[in-house]
Design goal:
Elements lengths: L11 H25 L2 H8 L4 H5 L3 H16 L1
């Protein structure tokens, strides 16, 4: 038996349209956010790190920051 849709649920054609548009929207949102993000300005607001740590673009420096961010996210 088909489940009855409530007044606020989208129909199947709307869900398909949203899925098609979703991929394009996500790509635009990621591109816009990446262009706007400034590591030296935004990262100190969420992570206590020295300017030297934030300015370290080496692979090891990036891993340290990511490790600290993951730890922060878990707590």
């Amino acid at each position: 038996m088909d489940r009855l849709r409530t007044k606020h649920e989208p129909g199947p054609e709307r869900l398909v349209a949203c899925e098609r548009a979703g991929a394009q929207y996500r790509e635009r949102a990621i591109t816009a956010t990446a262009a706007w993000y400034d590591r030296t300005r935004h990262l100190p607001n969420i992570l206590a790190a020295t300017p030297v740590e934030i300015g370290d673009w080496s692979r090891q420096g990036q891993r340290k920051l990511i490790t600290r961010l993951l730890r922060l996210a878990r707590n």
